[in-house]
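Progress against Task 2.4 (sequence-to-structure conversion) is shown through the following example record, which the project officer requested during the mid-term review.
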Amino acid sequence: MQLCLALDLADKQACLNLLAPLQGLNLWVKLGLRGFVREGPVFVEQIQKMGFKIFLDLKLHDIAYTMQQAALECAKLGVEMITLHASAGVSALKSVVEPMRVLKGAPLLMGVTILTSLDSLEVEQVYHASLQTQALHLAKLCFESGLDGVVCSVHESLAIKEATKMDFLTLTPGIRPNYQDTQDQKRVGTIQDALSAKADFIVMGRPIYNHPKPLEFVSQILEQIGGLHASMHQG
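Structure tokens generated for the chain above:
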């Protein structure tokens, strides 16, 4: 399981100040819509020069051709992972997958199932289906379309793998050290929850950059992931 730092601070310098001491760690950086719109592709290059793998989380959702071309522009930036909304449909998803198959160094393609900010009632209002049913349905669309994996809550990760393949990647946002401060995330979980759910990537933001000693805290998380992995394998 790998750790992604959600980089969502108020300005570029604050982001760079946070990243500087973390260089050299086995850490992904998730750059979302806010930071990318504000700072642009040049910021991607700055983060790459610091040695981090980049998860560009723009959640592309449009007609097939626009999604395809936008995804190819993302790939040109040399990022290692991008997101597409599963709700865009099979045709749009496949239109992105096909050119990526022949592209050297193509990023991982992750389909967004249901945002972790939505609860069961809101999912019913939007999709007219239960949360678990809709999450599995969208994940299967992504799997059948040839994506590498999906973004989902920790609560759906294992069920998605069981419904597709165990090596179909799951990335789980909203991970907290100990069910602390959920803020706008509603379907959250702990590192142990993510490991139990066989998640391949976890995303953590505020717990890291609100910590007084981010380097020490991130190092502890990475050790915890390694330690929990080891204990689970021994078990």
